[in-house]
Amino acid sequence: MKQLTAIVLTYNEAEQIEACVETLRFADRILVFDSYSNDDTVATARRSGAEVLQHSFVNYADQRNAALCAVEGETEWVLFVDADERVSADLAAEIQVKLSYSEYAAWRLPRHNYIFGKLTKWAGWYPDYQTRLLRLGRARYDPQRQVHEVAMLDGPVGTMDNPIIHYNYQNVAHFMDKQERYLRYDARMLFDMGTAPKLRNFFLQPLRQFHLRYVALKGYRDRWHGLRLSLFMAWYEYRKYRYLSQLHSSEGP
Fold it and tell me: What does pTM read for this prediction?
């Protein structure tokens, strides 16, 4: 049995996957768990030395759970890494030390988010802890949380010191595309829970989101960059409730 398997979930990540795999060489096994990409992701991953399995995408929680099932009985620990993330040498060394802590069910990693090419430490983007190093058999993902997944753990979770590096939004168009997809998942979850939008939600929720990002989480310390991100997140909070209202109009009783 291998001690550590690094798993990268992909869909059309041909531009990112080689650089990502290169930072995972310290793992005993590198597995690209692909959602039937229609670009060169699979071929590039294999050329980079990774194994590839393909599984139809339902939602993020389902995909991570399917990946855990795929390596069950074959590894002790799983490290989930996204294609646009990189593991530094310092983080790799820290991970290798933490593998001996068998009493832990998982470890969470801080994350350095590069948004529009800028390291962003305010407005909620740091420490941005991600529970990604999981002891197999003691961790699953909550199927009710289809996006912004939550790991359900049988045991304690530890916190690492070194961050994983995330090149998540290359430009404004990329940001808007991702946020639009996230808000639709979030609105769908609210709809499935029976939440109906109220008139005040269209005003108060965006204002609260802006105050949270810009004031409480000190987005102002990033000046124009922080202001722009806080405004974007407020706008998408408004969009979420608009979409929730549309769901009730089209699918509600």
Answer: 0.87
